Amino acid sequence: MRKVLAVGIGLAWATAGQAQSGAAATAPPAPPEAAASSAPLPRVTVTGRRPIDVGPMPGLMVTRDQIPANVQTATGQQIRASRALNLGDYMNQELQGVSVNDYQGNPFQLDVNYRGFTASPQVGTPQGLSVFFDGIRVNEPFGDVVNWDLIPTNAIERFDLFPGSNPLFGLNTLGGAISVRSKTGFSAPGLQGQLTAGAWGRRQLQLSGGANDGTLGGFFALTRFQEDGWRDDSPSRVNQLFGRGDWRGEAASAYASMLYADNRLVGNGLIPIDLYRQRAESVFTSPDEARNRVLQFSVGGQFDLSERANLTAMAYHRDSRRRGLNGDIYAGFDDFGDRDISPDGVARNGATRGGGFTGPGVVEGTPIGLLTRTDLEQRSNGLSLQFNWNQERNAMMLGASLDRSHTRYDMFQRLGLIDAAHRVFAAPDQIDPDYYAAEFDVPGNNFDGTSTTRSLFFQDTFTPVPQLTLTAAARYNHTHVDNTLLARSSAGQVPLHELREFRAPEYTDGQVFRRTRTQESFTYRSFNPSLGINWRPVQDLNLFGNLSRGARAPSVVELGCAFDPTPVERVPGTPSLGTAPRSLTGPGCSLPTALSADPYLPQIRATSGELGLRQRLTTDWDWNVSVFRTDLRNDIYFVGVGDGRSYFDTIGKTRRQGMELGLNGRMGPLDLRVNYSFTDATFQSRFYTLSPHNSTADFNQNSAYVGDTQVIGQDVLPTPNAALNRGYGTYRMIRIDPGARLPGIPAHALNLHLGWRVAPGWKLGLGMVARSMAYMRGNENNLHQGAGTDQEIGRYYCSQAGGCDFSGFSQLPVRTGRSFRNSGKVPGYAVFNFDASVEVSRGFTAFVQVTNLFDRQYFTAGRLGVNPFTPGTNGSNGPSGWNYNSSEWQNTSLVAPGAPRGVFVGFSWDLGTPAADR
Q1: Considering the entire predicted model, what is its pTM?
Q2: Is-cis flag, bond preceding 592, omega within 30?
Q3: Which residues pair with residue 265 across a beta bridge?
């Protein structure tokens, strides 16, 4: 029986055991010469159900019919045939409930959404999916992000997408889990390769090979990818290497694997829709570069205690580093004051009071760009042990795991200029020397921390009668976090343009280099159960349902950028000037650059339920349907808390619910796959968030946070809104009410694929990816309109000795309002992809792929923002097109454009692999 388990032929253990025992009983004795012969035995195909690993670790033999959820599976061969660049790309094309947002503008840096939950490489994005590679959690410790470019697709044997808050996958499994299994020398013998070249200078080589002698096996996979990108200044380079060795004995097996990747990804992000319409290939600003590197080792094995019981174990070490260089517009230009003047006294921003609000501004010597350098090092170690007991009617597992990570994060910023191609560059010799941050790197708030999670888990799958399966599972997690934050002091928490060279060096150096070291510790505990049922009233019809609970501890970024209401002195050492919440005494949290020592946030709790059925109609046709709901408590979001600042905070409840429907089959030479999903992802609690480019924001300065003292030395006239938002005011904020849809999640998603086997070895394929409208970030209340302006109402103040009664107030002047012209929605779209392949000789195939066949212009995501590259009536325009009077900037929609039509040709080979596995 051990041999059947070790070889892993893809059958349930009972079915496989019966086939083996039956063959042993009826086979005649082999002659001696046959035993010594090296001739291969004829291939025998046995029909059965492949077991699925229901957790990160293997060993429990449970079939799909015994899993009470709509689990979706893809094999390495299916991924290869799709020509997908990465796992997220494949999921978007083929699976139910999946959509992507390309906020970063790079095909390897997608936000992958499943049932309204996200796995993203972007720090600060709320994460709700966990991803495992051979049992190793690849969600990085800093922000739980997922770097899709570090997972080599040609090393994947298969992956399973588990929906809901499955407790077996541990923390962060709020909406689902992706479990990836690698190829081995036993499962993937032979040599496979693929060469691809085509549009935008794309060149890709994928090479893999495996072999075994029945006891020892080895496998390797290599990927090299280069592309110039279809947009300006957007090259990418991906290098991946995976290797694995396996040993298989009579009662035990062991393996060791290594993963290495060294990638340079440039994705220049969103672009104002006005610039896109002028020239689609242009970028807002550049560079936006991420250099990702990972080195991962793992060892593991399985020991059979008996024919039905085994132990599996795994240990790993993962070392990753991410260095970033980001060039952005310096949004602080809009806040330039009367001291930001040229040597001859002209206001650098013509929209300020010193410029008369209609001044031209000053091009020469004015910083308008921001360069940010980040360095993130992460090291993780862990081990898992699992006992599996596979009986005829009962399959049970009991396991424990320990995971420990260490993270170090550093950040530096500098003011710069922007050239005609919108490249941001440092130019200390061209910027007024009064700006300290243009000449020197300014350190940000740096971080060092560790996180340790200990877990116990179990699952029991009981089949009392062949038609019924009951499942119960649970996991207990204990997480302890120790963080050390090195933050700029309160005196140094000022915008970069306010760091002045003309001040005494000891003052400026004190603002920049005076650091406060803070240590903080948090402990989280959770117990997450699940129950499920499968009922098979007739053969090939499976009805299922489940209830489960999950949890996610706040990430390092969320803890370090959480709102802290602790009262502190507005000006250190001057108590007479009153107090304010700690988080409001400095600039807001501009992710991923700002961290602070902030308070405890409760962990997010998820409760999930699902009902569905799947049925095999005939040998060639099957279908499925399911409905689901997941409710979150203590959800965390980036919210506004007053004085134009935003932080992570608990917002209460959110909900994701919907339906999935799939049909798959073939008819003669035609293959058809149809996958549809409806996802309703909504906020369920009221809260406020900063959104100054939303037409429904509060633009009254008198609605701002006041605190326990009025404006220093003055009286003010606050509006009633100043008392809302827990007393932090609503200036430049929007209110989100229950029922508002989450941004970036389309309600409807439809994937179609039609394949035609024209002749033996000749295939044609046509696929469609269709998504409905989605709301943009910044439009969380779903109420933004392309009408009106952001005209502000100036603050009322009184400077009379003894204060003012109900008269004598003056009002601060304000700049002219800027109009709103866009809807705040990402339109729906449908994109078609074409593929043709022909086998030119045995094992050798030529192919052509056309993406976006009809050259459709579309967007996958968007955000409300502002465009400073606008023609000016009053303001001067520099070489970059920057308007130096910010009152003439345009409120706009920044969009994530999809790539235009791309044509790629290639050649693949498959040598030594059994024909049925190609």
Answers
A1: 0.89
A2: yes
A3: 236, 290
